[in-house]
């Protein structure tokens, strides 16, 4: 009988069997070695030199990352904060930011734990300026007789400093905000008090009397507020409340266009979309406003054909249809001033520059702006009406690039079967049923004939048959382990790819990348360093949560695994220290949508600006992520009471120990120290973030003596949430009496 070359681990050798001499291998009869090429060889089989440029190509950095991200000569990701205008000395090494933020304070770091969000306000500023420049150029080149002034939809990322930065950076060109709820409206009103007085405050979303009253009050506060009707019924409230408050409103209408795109993000557009008024309802609004003498208040037309519009052709169709409605409203006597084209300006998540998927778009900022300007100008010129002010609600395109999520791979594992000796192989075959033995013979015969697909088919069939036999109790665990070893060896012998590793990452997918779990949205995820080394494995990412969906097993480019570097069990590979990965283009929606599954809160956050210092950057703001206390409080628990309960229980247990053994004055002193140490460690556990810590900030060490266990608290240099005055909150005061 032909046998497979194999070696056996002692764990699968049955009692009474021994290893063969030497390495225990015999030829795999009749099966030629698989042809090794650069495409199918394991990484160790390829000896050509690796380079940062090859990593940039492998991970498509030049596609999705341009002009803000690149791979530098050191093999690290570098940030170009000013896009294409970034000078060489202004580039920022991302690894240096991570080290500055995460290193202990004793060596000059900030001591913040990972995961970490790095915000780059310079990138945000460049995105705003680039969008404005694209429209300014299109308007000038086409002879368009009005201007562009956009708004940022705060739902994309409501974080305070993001919104404040947008208002500040956008003030020179009247950039405004869009709100879709009452809290967002309050936020926008407050921020725009410091912005350009001509900036729009666009009020979208479903509205009740309180929402409309707030919007009217905003006009009273000299904010350029527009109330956009999402439902026809809202008009009655606007009319009644504006008359009651004696405030003349500016009114817009969201039109429900026929134009839509077929992708996931186009589901809210078209005639059956969730939002907007039909042409019949718009005509009713015109009539009602005319009857109450408020038709002059109708000044804006809004529409939205879906996020991530894939092509300028589809964009032009939608804008052209809306321009026709706009021109008809002018004809009907409305005081039309503004055409708000909504969102839809997409970004290229996978670097393909393709209009055939939800992950990319087939245009840039300049082409987008030109398509809009040309479509509106064509309709207005034909109708001989004044060109409207152009407004867009581009959120994803503004904030996606400015935020990077960095997290650590703490370990990696791979399902690896044992090897077998010829003797163990014979034992395995002898223990099979007739049907399973036939599968084995067919597998080896197919291998000898060079029919490798058939060989793998019989290998899978043999494996499944053995699983069934194990479930029935016919064979033991040794046989089950042996068939795994056999099938893995067969796969390797005929050139099947190496098994995919699982990299365990210090992250919650549900908290930090909810769109991946919820809608299958893919983001570029790559190592942020070691890019001058050839990746030695392929892997998927498994998060910390106790949930089978807490993994990332799909990546840009249609890949089901990611090229990664080898790491040791503790996350340190080849003396390189921690292994850091970055998720890019996630600045929109992910933070707002993230939950607290398994009570994992959000990451730490730092704000990093380009500077002229030795490392080209300055950390201008730093804050740790929510502590265990914070996330418990979100679920209406009371951490202070929980702490007292646990502290009391610890005191009771130590008192019982001392009562049982008898206690001297020295023992009493040790137990008092033990109580204090337990209390201190409990307090720090409540204060620390829920994620894995590189070095425990409070470890209990037990030293045994005659009176039982004595516990001591060992403090490390890690981040101390209670002691860091730069980021400590008022809440820390109530804990200070129990923190060492």
UniProtKB/TrEMBL annotation:
Belongs to the Orn/Lys/Arg decarboxylase class-II family. SpeA subfamily. It comes from the Eukaryota. It holds the Pfam family Orn_Arg_deC_N. The active site is at residue 546. Its cofactor is pyridoxal 5'-phosphate; Mg(2+). This is Arginine decarboxylase. SUPFAM superfamilies: PLP-binding barrel (SSF51419). Pathway: Amine and polyamine biosynthesis; agmatine biosynthesis; agmatine from L-arginine: step 1/1. InterPro entries: Ala_racemase/Decarboxylase_C, Arg_decrbxlase, De-COase2_CS, De-COase2_N, De-COase2_pyr-phos_BS, Orn/DAP/Arg_de-COase, PLP-binding_barrel. CDD domains: PLPDE_III_ADC. PANTHER family: ARGININE DECARBOXYLASE, ARGININE DECARBOXYLASE 1, CHLOROPLASTIC-RELATED. GO terms for biological process: L-arginine catabolic process; putrescine biosynthetic process; response to cold; spermidine biosynthetic process. Keywords: Decarboxylase, Lyase, Magnesium, Putrescine biosynthesis, Pyridoxal phosphate, Spermidine biosynthesis. It comes from Linum trigynum. NCBIfam families: PRK05354.1, speA. Residues 147-400 form the Orn/DAP/Arg decarboxylase 2 N-terminal domain. The modification N6-(pyridoxal phosphate)lysine is found at residue 155. PROSITE patterns: ODR_DC_2_1, ODR_DC_2_2. Its EC number is 4.1.1.19. GO terms for molecular function: arginine decarboxylase activity. It catalyses: L-arginine + H(+) = agmatine + CO2.
């Amino acid at each position: 009988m032909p046998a497979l070359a194999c070696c056996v681990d002692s764990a699968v050798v049955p009692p009474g069997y021994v290893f063969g001499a030497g390495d225990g291998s015999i030829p795999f009869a009749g099966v030629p070695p698989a042809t090794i090429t650069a495409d199918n060889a394991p990484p160790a089989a390829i000896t050509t030199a690796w380079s940062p440029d090859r990593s940039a190509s492998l991970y498509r950095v030049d596609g999705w990352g341009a002009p803000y991200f690149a791979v530098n000569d050191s093999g690290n990701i570098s940030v170009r904060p000013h896009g294409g205008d970034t000078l060489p000395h202004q580039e920022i090494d991302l690894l240096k930011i991570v080290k500055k933020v995460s290193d202990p304070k004793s060596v000059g770091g900030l001591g913040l734990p990972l995961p970490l969000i790095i915000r780059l306000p310079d990138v945000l500023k460049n995105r705003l300026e680039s969008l404005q420049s694209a429209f300014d150029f299109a308007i000038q080149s086409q002879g368009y007789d009005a201007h562009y002034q956009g708004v940022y939809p705060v739902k994309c990322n409501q974080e305070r400093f993001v919104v404040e930065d947008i208002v500040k950076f956008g003030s020179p060109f009247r950039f405004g905000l869009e709100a879709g709820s009452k809290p967002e409206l309050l936020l926008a009103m407050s921020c725009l008090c410091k912005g350009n007085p001509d900036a729009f405050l666009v009020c979208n979303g479903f509205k009740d009397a309180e929402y409309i009253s707030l919007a009217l009050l905003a006009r009273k506060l000299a904010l350029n507020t527009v109330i956009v009707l999402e439902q026809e019924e809202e008009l009655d409230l606007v009319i009644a409340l504006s008359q009651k408050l004696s405030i003349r409103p500016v009114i817009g209408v969201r039109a429900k266009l026929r134009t839509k795109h077929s992708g996931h993000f186009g589901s809210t557009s078209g005639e059956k979309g969730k939002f907007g008024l039909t042409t019949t309802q718009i005509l009713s609004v015109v009539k009602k406003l005319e009857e109450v003498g408020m038709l002059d208040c109708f000044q804006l037309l809004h529409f939205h054909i879906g996020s991530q519009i894939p092509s300028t052709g589809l964009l032009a169709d939608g804008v052209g249809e809306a321009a026709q409605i706009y021109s008809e409203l002018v004809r009907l006597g409305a005081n039309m001033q503004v055409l708000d084209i909504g969102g839809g300006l997409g970004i290229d998540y996978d670097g393909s520059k393709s209009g055939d998927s939800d992950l990319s778009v087939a245009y840039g900022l300049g082409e987008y702006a030109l398509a809009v300007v040309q479509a509106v100008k064509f309709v207005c010129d034909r109708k001989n009406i004044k060109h409207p002010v152009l407004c867009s609600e581009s959120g994803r395109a503004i904030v996606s690039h400015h935020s990077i999520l960095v997290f650590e791979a703490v370990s990696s594992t791979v399902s690896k079967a044992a090897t077998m000796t010829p003797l163990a192989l014979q034992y395995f075959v002898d223990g099979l049923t007739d049907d399973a033995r036939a599968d084995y013979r067919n597998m080896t015969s197919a291998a000898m004939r060079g029919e490798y697909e058939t060989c793998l088919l019989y290998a899978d069939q043999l494996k499944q048959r053995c699983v069934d036999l194990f479930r029935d109790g016919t064979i033991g665990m040794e046989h089950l382990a042996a068939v795994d070893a056999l099938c893995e060896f067969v796969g390797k012998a005929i050139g099947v790819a190496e098994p995919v590793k699982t990299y365990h990452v210090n992250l919650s997918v549900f908290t930090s990348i909810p769109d991946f779990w919820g809608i299958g949205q893919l983001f570029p995820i790559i190592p942020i360093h070691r890019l001058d080394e050839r990746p030695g494995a392929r892997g998927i990412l498994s998060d910390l949560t106790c949930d089978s969906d807490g993994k990332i097993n799909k990546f840009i480019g249609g890949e089901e695994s990611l090229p990664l570097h080898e790491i040791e069990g503790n996350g340190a590979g080849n003396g390189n220290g921690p292994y850091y990965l970055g998720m890019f283009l996630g600045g929109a929606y992910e933070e707002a949508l993230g939950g607290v599954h398994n009570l994992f809160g959000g990451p730490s956050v730092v704000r990093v600006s380009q500077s002229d210092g030795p490392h080209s950057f300055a950390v201008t703001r730093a804050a740790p992520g929510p502590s265990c206390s914070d996330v418990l409080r979100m679920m209406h628990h009371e951490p202070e009471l929980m702490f007292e309960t646990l502290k009391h229980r610890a005191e009771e247990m130590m008192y019982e120990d001392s009562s049982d053994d008898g206690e001297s004055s020295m023992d009493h002193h040790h137990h008092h120290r033990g109580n204090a140490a337990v209390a201190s460690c409990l307090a720090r556990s409540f204060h620390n973030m829920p994620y894995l810590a590189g070095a425990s900030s409070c470890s209990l060490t037990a030293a045994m003596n005659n009176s039982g266990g004595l516990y001591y608290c060992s403090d490390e240099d890690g981040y101390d949430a209670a002691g860091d005055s730069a980021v400590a909150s008022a809440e820390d005061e109530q804990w200070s009496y129990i923190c060492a």
